[in-house]
Hints:
The chain is α/β, with parallel strands linked by helices. The chain is built from 4 helices and 5 strands; from the N terminus they run E-E-H-E-H-H-E-H-E. It has a 5-stranded mixed β-sheet with strand order 1-2-3-4-5, with helices on one face. A hairpin with a 4-residue loop joins strand 1 (about 5-10) and strand 2. Helix 2 runs parallel beside helix 4 (about 90-105).
Amino acid sequence: MALTFEIDPQSGLIAITRSHNPTFDEWRMFMEELLTDLQFRPGFAIVEDRRGDRTVPSRNDVEIAAAWIRTNATRLGQSRWAVVLDPTSLAAFGMVRVGEFLTDRSGVSLRGFTSIE
Length: 117
């Protein structure tokens, strides 16, 4: 499976691990599963560890995912979403920066990082 998640309701944190690049439909189904998990609450912070996936998403992929985030922002709640990438994957980091811009003012604060700390 390309994506897995763990929810810590005590800390309000969701940890997503990505091992390889899923299709948009796989990602969308994964996100639906996450949002319908009984432990999920709107406003939980998300840390998405993409260090195991060195794929660079296309601009189109980023636009489609950002549109989904904007559409589902109410379900996600006012939240922070950190995407952690391999520090040598500058192109993927750049695409996350595009995602930051495209989700701005959605209520979901998406940011890219190169360190899990």
